[in-house]
Amino acid sequence: xxxxxxxxxxxxxxxxxxxxxxxxxxxxxxxxxxxxxxxxxxxxxxxxxxxxxxxxxxxxxxxxxxxxxxxxxxxxxxxxxxxxxxxxxxxxxxxxxxxxxxxxxxxxxxxxxxxxxxxxxxxxxxxxxxxxxxxxxxxxxxxxxxxxxxxxxxxxxxxxxxxxxxxxxxxxxxxxxxxxxxxxxxxxx
Length: 189
Description:
The chain has 189 residues and is of the alpha/beta class. The chain has seven helices and six strands, in the order E-H-H-E-H-E-H-H-H-E-H-E-E.
């Protein structure tokens, strides 16, 4: 028997619509409506995890998942940029933003680098020994790094992957290796 893992990106928040670095914000009205439209699609799942962030826990709850909080699935720590609009940060710290986007080891905001997040997610994925179906509600950054790890792709490819709110990305593990099954599909209604 194998493991089938579905990663779901949290529903929309104010930060998504205003192009802000996320903080621990709740879902916005649209995010609540989106999750209500797909509530209960994972009724048969017995193993579920969620990031500790409020927006992920609210998404998991709205999806009617009895999810365990998993710290490894937390979003990137954006340090002093958390909650701030990208445009504002870009205007005040253009060199720092450029370094962060060009150098995966860079963390000019005082939080985590992309490579640190990738290592955290890879460790979590590779420690999975469960069998059957598993769902985890997390964040676009975590989904991107999971894809990179599973494909063995360069961390420089991080910025080339788009993950939609409530996007579903599926993986399977056959006991030897991870396989990417689908990226960013919509949840069935």
